């Protein structure tokens, strides 16, 4: 099944001007992308591409952090049919950095997604699938990438599509990642009293690490408070407590 669904098409049609930079957050199943057999062998494995934003053919995902204490991960990687070669570069207590050479099928998926114009900002893989954040120069680049995914039957689930140039989040100083986690947390009831969803469950749902989600929420809160309450607020410090209730 390809990327283009009625819901996704509506999202594309609803975003702003054709020349606006557009951020797409989506997910791919491991069997349609990479490391399906590795995740089947090590179910609790989490991998993240090193944060090196790259576009087009340069976005080769060659540097991969793996969060695991599995001693034989290099052997598992080298036996995965989507990996041509792998080499461990360094390790910490619970993270290993690998240089990975992918097979042509993985490179083809990346090229389909990016269409030589998209910029791969982040990519994280767990057993249930890969989550990606891709920045496209214009809305038309998004449409082109979607049509290409449909043509080559690359299965992608789109979680959000946003035009950044007109996004209120930019005015508040939020990064795309901070805006995504804050809005998703709000929709899922993380800020409700009592909470409808916990931090760990929300992190799993969004395919991000517990630590990354916590940091983005904290920094997003700080940015929103500074931009909307501290810098622009005209409320007197002696205002009644009911005016300032949370």
UniProtKB/TrEMBL annotation:
Residues 174-225 form the HTH bat-type domain. The keyword Transcription applies. Keywords: Transcription, Transcription regulation. It comes from the Archaea. This is Helix-turn-helix domain-containing protein. It comes from Halocatena salina.
